[in-house]
């Protein structure tokens, strides 16, 4: 079983969301995977109520605020995301961190808010190119992971980690299966140390960064890669369907 998640970013309004689910035909093989789509907040409700959406596809929010409500213009609370149909939430995506300046502390507050409302947090971690060139991959991704682990609601809290090297996102550059396996091993070892072996084993660690139908199988066969988080290639129903049918 693999987790196949699509992050639509700031694409796909209500009409496009409905058209996507109408056009998407899941292939045999997808049935064994856990499938997730993260539409923009304004399209969550349309995705949740779309009669053509295969109910095996769960939905998530791309971002939440850590407060439950209040004077926070432009923000979406965890409770609102749940009400709109989300079961999961992306937290700390590299665009949130690097374009909007989100810190590890804010990521932790969002993880806590997601947990309070029963959302499964998908905590994104990843190094920039210069951090990689400076040999700081483990230091950076472990600091990002640790901040999230501190606020998890007990060892039973379900969550996922997504390793997305920033230099591989939307660039066409993909980490090699070995790069992914090394980073995933580092993350798994930390999960084992903090949560224990059983919880570490059941926590999916996804790889993200220029995943396409052509490279999904190779990445999913890398050691410790439990799934993929797909950006650009998840916008096209055909390519999402192909990746969704990839096993590990
Ligand atoms: P990409 O995006 O597949 O377009 O590289 C991945 C992501 O940002 O989650």
Summarize the structure.
With 248 residues, the chain is an alpha/beta fold.
Jot down its keywords:
248 residues, alpha/beta, 8-stranded parallel β-barrel, 8 strands, globular, binds 2-phosphoglycolic acid
Descriptive report:
With 248 residues, the chain is an alpha/beta fold. 42% of the residues lie in helices and 15% in strands. The chain is built from eleven helices and eight strands. It has an eight-stranded parallel barrel, surrounded by seven helices. Helix 1 crosses helix 2 and helix 7 runs parallel beside helix 8. The protein is globular. The model has no long low-confidence stretch (mean pLDDT 96). Bound molecules: 2-phosphoglycolic acid (PGA). The site of 2-phosphoglycolic acid has 13 residues, from strand 8.
Number of E strands: 8
Most strands sheet: 8 strands, parallel, barrel
Bound small molecules, by name, code or SMILES, are: 2-phosphoglycolic acid
Global geometry: globular
Write the layout of secondary structure elements.
Blueprint lengths: L2 E5 L6 H10 L10 E5 L2 H9 L7 E5 L16 H7 L3 E4 L2 H5 L5 H13 L3 E6 L3 H5 L3 H13 L10 E4 L13 H19 L1 H6 L2 E4 L4 H8 L6 E4 L6 H8 L4
Parallel strand pairs: 1-2, 1-8, 2-3, 3-4, 4-5, 5-6, 6-7, 7-8
Helix pairs in contact: 1-2, 5-7, 7-8
The protein binds 2-phosphoglycolic acid (PGA).
């Amino acid at each position: 079983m693999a987790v196949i998640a699509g992050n639509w970013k700031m694409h796909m309004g209500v009409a496009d969301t409905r058209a996507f689910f109408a056009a998407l035909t899941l292939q045999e093989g997808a049935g064994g995977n856990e499938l997730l789509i993260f539409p923009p907040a304004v399209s969550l409700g349309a995705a949740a109520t779309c009669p053509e959406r295969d109910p095996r596809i769960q939905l998530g929010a791309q971002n939440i605020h850590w407060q439950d409500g209040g004077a926070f213009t432009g923000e979406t609370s965890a409770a609102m995301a749940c009400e709109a149909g989300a079961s999961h939430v992306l937290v700390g995506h590299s665009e949130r961190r690097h374009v909007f300046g989100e810190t590890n502390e804010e990521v932790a507050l969002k993880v806590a808010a997601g947990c309070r409302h029963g959302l499964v947090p998908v905590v994104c971690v990843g190094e920039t190119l210069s951090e990689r060139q400076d040999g700081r991959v483990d230091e950076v991704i472990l600091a990002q992971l640790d901040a999230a682990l501190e606020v998890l609601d007990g060892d039973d809290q379900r969550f996922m980690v997504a390793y997305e090297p920033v230099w591989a996102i939307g660039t066409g550059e993909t980490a090699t299966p070995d790069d992914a396996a090394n980073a995933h091993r580092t993350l798994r070892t930390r999960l084992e140390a903090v949560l224990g072996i059983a919880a570490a084993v059941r926590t999916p660690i996804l790889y993200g960064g220029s995943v396409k139908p052509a490279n999904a199988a190779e990445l999913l066969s890398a050691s410790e890669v439990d799934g993929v988080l797909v950006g650009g290639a998840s916008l096209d129903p055909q390519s999402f369907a192909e990746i969704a049918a990839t096993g590990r």
